Amino acid sequence: MASASFVKLNALSSPRISHRSFAHPSASPPPPRVSFAIRAGAYSDELVKTAKTIASPGRGILAIDESNATCGKRLASIGLDNTEENRQAYRQLLLTTPGLGDYISGAILFEETLYQSTKDGKKFVDCLNDAKIVPGIKVDKGLVPLPGSNEESWCQGLDGLASRSAEYYKQGARFAKWRTVVSIPCGPSALAVKEAAWGLARYAAISQDNGLVPIVEPEILLDGDHPIERTLEVAEKVWSEVFFYLAQNNVMFEGILLKPSMVTPGAEHKNKASPETVAEYTLTMLKRRVPPAVPGIMFLSGGQSEAEATLNLNAMNQSPNPWHVSFSYARALQNSVLRTWQGKPEKIEDSQKALLVRAKANSLAQLGKYSAEGENEDAKKGMFVKGYTY
After folding, report:
1. pLDDT digits (tens, 9 = 90+) for 116-153
2. pLDDT exceeding 70 applies to what percent of the chain?
3. What is the pLDDT of residue 110?
4. For a disulfide at 224, which of 130, 185, 337, 356, Cβ 3.0-4.6 Å?
């Protein structure tokens, strides 16, 4: 029998999308939507194998694909200059952590990191492969203002993507990431939603054509004071558009991974949602919009605290799901590491232990076995940054 809270959820979240927010700019009816058959590509079998490897039980993704500028902000928080040497030292600390592959199945790298090596000359790609962690690569070129929108953004990087992806594959990358964003306080406008969905679909098709499993990531920003019902409404609209355009571009669903935001209230909303509520709303959205052919849902943390992101993931894994429901965290895996390291060589071992603590916690959450008992207060501190960029 459905719980009272779930009955309430269904009543609140029936698909009554606001015409004001998403109305088509033209009064004429839209053209008919046509389905296309998925064509087999040269990398089809490899793509499916890679996606299944990343979406393996008890494991998730470590996202260390921040741009050099954003990495510099992280380093500045512990008093280090933003130099290639310091960035390389920090990446080495993370990627050479003993036992990391027990909990991490993939690592998203920035382009600089994909071509770097340890101080001893071992390629970072080889370090990952030896740990049975799949190397990945951020391929988008960042957000820029979207003309004609309500002060919204679009993601650039499609120009030259095919040739860049082919080179990344040669260097050892086997999956890719493209992050675009949707802002609820800005509407979102129909133009911004369509642009986000179409860009993701073109990127995904190009990635698969070059042997890279695409992570599809339309991040719905936490910015705003809206309730969780509004987030659900927008998420359903966005993912509906995304999968329509993925199908139009002949993207093979078995060879992709998703990186959605969790369905939560806006960061400035007066009431926080419990992990159980976040799980209910998020899984409702996924079940309504995501085909079971997709092998893995790798959630982003989006500025949640380390403990909050882990608790919410754990709540989503209390019963079986059609997909592997896991994590692709950046700040929610690295925050404790940076605070421990402080740029000091003698703190590297302790920092790697801190990374393993967070990775293991999220591994247990993927299995639905995590308990927040014993979490320190620092892990409960939120990391939301308004208008956050990479």
Report:
1. 999 999 999 999 999 999 999 999 999 999 999 999 99
2. 85
3. 97
4. 185
The residue with tokens 């605290």 is 305
- pTM, full prediction: 0.86
Which residues are registered as beta bridge partners of 218? 180
Mean pLDDT, rounded, of the chain: 89
CA distance 233 to 230: 5
Q: Which residue has the tokens 């916690």?
A: 361
Query: Hey, what are 73's tokens?
Result: 């902000």
The answer to whether the peptide bond before residue 322 is cis (omega within 30 degrees of 0) is no
Q: Report the candidate in 180, 188, 195, 271 with the shortest Cα–Cα distance to residue 233.
A: 188
The count of other CB atoms within 10 Å of the CB of residue 321 is 16
Token pair in block for residue 257? 């991974």
Candidates 249, 253, 271, 260; CA nearest to 203 is 249
Residue 302 banded pLDDT, cuts 50, 70, 90: confident
Which residues are catalytic, by number?
217, 259
pLDDT of residue 38: 57
Q: Between 4 and 78, name the one with better pLDDT.
A: 78
Q: How far is it, in rounded angstroms, from Cα 119 to Cα 117?
A: 7
Closest CA to 53 of 107, 97, 15: 107
Residue 146 contacts residue 154 (beta carbons within 8 Å): yes
Q: What is the 3-state secondary structure (H, E, C) of the chain?
A: CCCHHHHHHHHHCCCCCCHHHHCCCCCCCCCCCCCCCCCCCCCHHHHHHHHHHHCCCCCEEEEECCCHHHHHHHHHCCCCCCCHHHHHHHHHHHHCCCCHHHCEEEEEECHHHHCCECCCCCEHHHHHHHCCCEEEEECCCCEEECCCCCCCEEECCCCCHHHHHHHHHHHCCCEEEEEEEECCCCCCCHHHHHHHHHHHHHHHHHHHHCCCEEEEEEEECCCCCCCHHHHHHHHHHHHHHHHHHHHHCCCCHHHCEECCCCCCCCCCCCCCCCHHHHHHHHHHHHHHHCCCCCCEEEECCCCCCHHHHHHHHHHHCCCCCCCEEEEEECHHHHHHHHHHHCCCHHHHHHHHHHHHHHHHHHHHHHCCCCCCCCCCHHHHCCCCCCCCCC
The pLDDT of residue 273 is: 94
Q: Per-residue confidence at 267, pLDDT binned at 50, 70, 90? A: confident
